[in-house]
């Protein structure tokens, strides 16, 4: 499912549009996006953060 979500984001769809397309709730999309970014933050170095922002427009929050 995460692959479909990322493809939707890449294509410029909103979370609601992706949820409607996949017939799931908006919260499900948000959960998968949050989980995927958490995994990327753990595995990636600091060079990935600007790339994620440029690709998806989502700032990476340092914790």
Automatic annotation (TrEMBL):
Pfam families: GerE (PF00196)
GO molecular function: DNA binding
Residue ranges annotated for the HTH luxR-type domain, each copy included: 11-38
Superkingdom as given in the UniProt entry: Bacteria
A Gene Ontology biological process term: regulation of DNA-templated transcription
Stated name of the protein: HTH luxR-type domain-containing protein
Organism: Ulvibacterium marinum
Organism lineage string: Bacteria, Pseudomonadati, Bacteroidota, Flavobacteriia, Flavobacteriales
């Amino acid at each position: 499912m995460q692959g479909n979500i990322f493809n939707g984001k890449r294509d410029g769809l909103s979370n609601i549009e992706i949820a409607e397309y996949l017939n799931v709730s908006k919260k499900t999309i948000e959960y998968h996006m949050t989980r995927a970014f958490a995994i990327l933050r753990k595995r990636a170095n600091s060079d990935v953060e600007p790339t994620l922002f440029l690709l998806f427009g989502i700032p990476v929050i340092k914790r």
